Amino acid sequence: MIDNLRNEELARQLSQLGSATIYEAQGAFGALDAGMKPLSPGMKVAGPVFTVDVRPGDNLMLHYALLHVQPGDVLVVDAKAFIEAGPWGDILTEQALHKGVAGLVINGSVRDVQAIQEMGFAVFCRGVSIKGTAKKQSGKINVAVTIGEVTIQPGDYIFGDVDGLVVVPAANLSSVLESALAREHVEANFRMKIREGVSTVELLELNAPLSQMGLV
């Protein structure tokens, strides 16, 4: 319980720094591919991962998952990048909000976009489709899933905003936060120096590579 509370606080602090900063602080690792987009630019998501592995074109396991998800969890769903049907819509969103789910990341499509936006539920997805899905096929919850080239484990933490999505193992939250804060300090100093007239070439010590190219 103490570890969970500590992780929640670490994740809360990380969520204030932005997905790009977290990704860089983690050593340029854990970013989902650029095909995963928020339904609205202002949407943000952060929290521990609850994974769901579903068959394309079927959403039975999403209904089942919502029986087991915990408040604050982020549903991370692998629908195998199938975008010609939307297994998630307004009714599932209503149920997710009732359960206190922090958001949805789905490797597939959703529908009922306007209703989801109006309900203020954070959704990151690969597409939007008007078509519905069946409720017949089994799947799995709380298993490792892979989206693009990133394998996501149950209990990992995921952070998303308009820049994208990044996954951080729970055990790494403290070190990533430390690196992210250090990075923020460096960039704040860069901004100050730029306002004083220093160039980015000087700040990033780019004279040597530019010189090798005959550009200086």
What does this structure look like?
- With 216 residues, the protein is an alpha/beta fold.
- It has a single domain, classed as Glucose Oxidase, domain 1.
- It is built from eight helices and ten strands.
- Strands 1, 2, 3, 4, 5, 6, 9 and 10 form an eight-stranded mixed β-sheet that branches.
- Helix 5 links the parallel strand 4 and strand 5.
- The chain is elongated, with a radius of gyration of 20 Å.
- The mean pLDDT is 96.
The profile of the biggest β sheet is:
8 strands, mixed
How many β-strands, per DSSP?
10
| Beta-strand share of residues | 15-25%
Mean pLDDT figure: 96
CATH topology: Glucose Oxidase, domain 1
Helix content range: 25-40%
Number of domains: 1
Distance between the termini: 58 Å
Seen as an oligomer or otherwise, the chain set is single chain
Radius of gyration: 20 Å
Low-confidence sequence ranges: none
Q: What is the global morphology?
A: elongated
Order of helices and strands: HHEEHEHEHEEEEEEHHH
Q: Quickly count the helices.
A: 8
CATH superfamily: Ribonuclease E inhibitor RraA/RraA-like
Summary, kept brief:
The chain has 216 residues and is α/β, with parallel strands linked by helices. 36% of the residues lie in helices and 24% in strands.
List keywords for this structure.
10 strands; alpha/beta; RraA/RraA-like; Glucose Oxidase, domain 1; metal-binding; Putative 4-hydroxy-4-methyl-2-oxoglutarate aldolase; 24% strand; RraA/RraA-like_sf; two-stranded antiparallel sheet; 216 residues
